[in-house]
Design brief:
Blueprint lengths: L3 H13 L15 H4 L5 H18 L4 E6 L7 H14 L3 H12 L1 H21 L3 E5 L5 H11 L4 E6 L16 E4 L2 H11 E6 L4 H15 L9 E4 L1 H7 L2 H6 L12 E3 L2 H14 L27
């Protein structure tokens, strides 16, 4: 029988959880007003650091092949529709030039989709445990996820909340769709999970992702090599004068060896698979990866907890 003292202590403890109005007072980690406040920024940062790790391991993701590229690039079919619509409306000037410029980039979408499909099939058939990862949006990111979907393979989408452009594409595996608020944590998970990276043409966001990765490689901050393919040499050498960086001493000529130029799906596929066989598949697990093996990718029981 519970003693009277214990009963009173329990009752007093329960009363502490109730406000003067008789409403239950939420615990700090259930207080949404607090969690969304400036004072809880550190908690939100920690959540975006730890939650993806738990979900990736639960899904059995051993590593990723990351695709970077513009959210604006259309596929060939959409590009043709855009051009036809512009003709019908009589679009002229800068707007017509913008549409024509985007349409001229559509072949990169198709190549990214095909490269993703082939890499996904290679990893699945070889049981390498590597899956495609993108920024979760449309354009080149959608091409990467769509290619994996074509191969019947899962893929990751590291989406981020923005006031424009960035909406999840429909080809991401639902269990592997993430939504970030902080850019730096999204980029952390891009690099930490990556075993290889492919950079397709893009704008400021792609520049940011590519140059941060190259800086980490240049300064030897990575725990293991990550093969990097920069796809579309004509585009990149038009927008960035790499030779001028060398001529002015801003980078060394050796720094150009941090990535592999590619203009074809066959070349990119050959380079990545050969590098991954030599590096990722032969490298001992380190850091988080040294933990106990995760279950098979997308175990049917994933959502039961």
């Amino acid at each position: 029988m519970v003693s009277e003292a214990r009963r009173r202590q329990t009752a007093a403890s329960m009363e502490v959880q109730m406000s003067h109005e008789g409403k239950e007072v939420p615990k700090a980690y259930e207080n949404l007003e607090f969690l969304h406040s400036p004072q809880a920024r550190e908690v939100r940062i920690l959540a975006e650091f730890t939650e993806p790790r738990m979900r990736l391991r639960k899904a059995g993701v051993d590593g990723t092949i990351v695709f970077f590229g513009s959210a604006r690039t259309p596929c060939t079919e959409d590009a043709e529709t855009m051009l036809a619509e512009a003709t019908r409306k009589g679009t002229k000037g800068k707007e017509l030039a913008r549409i024509q410029g985007l349409a001229a980039m559509a072949h990169y979408y198709d190549k990214a989709r095909e490269l993703s499909r082939r890499l996904s099939t290679w990893s699945t058939n070889g049981k390498h445990g590597l899956i495609i990862c993108s920024g979760g949006g449309h354009g080149m990111m959608g091409a990467a996820n769509q290619g994996a979907h074509d191969a019947g393979a899962p893929s990751v989408g590291l989406n981020i909340s923005l006031p424009f452009e960035q909406h999840p594409n429909p080809w991401i595996t639902p269990e592997l769709e993430f939504q970030f608020h902080y850019f730096f944590l999204r980029k952390y998970w891009f690099v930490h999970s990556a075993r290889a990276v492919v950079v397709f043409p893009g704008g400021f966001g792609t520049f940011d992702e590519m140059f941060e990765l190259l800086t980490l490689a240049q300064t030897r901050k990575l725990d293991r090599p990550r093969p990097v393919v920069v796809f579309g040499r004509e585009y990149w050498e038009k927008v960035i004068n790499f030779q001028h960086l060398i001529d002015t001493g801003m980078i060394d000529e050796e720094d150009l060896k941090l990535w592999h130029w590619s203009d074809s799906v066959d070349d990119a596929f050959q380079h990545l698979t050969s590098q991954l066989k030599d590096i990722h598949l032969q490298t001992p697990r380190v850091g988080y990866d040294s933990e106990l093996p995760a279950p098979a990718i997308l175990n049917p029981d994933t959502n039961r907890d």
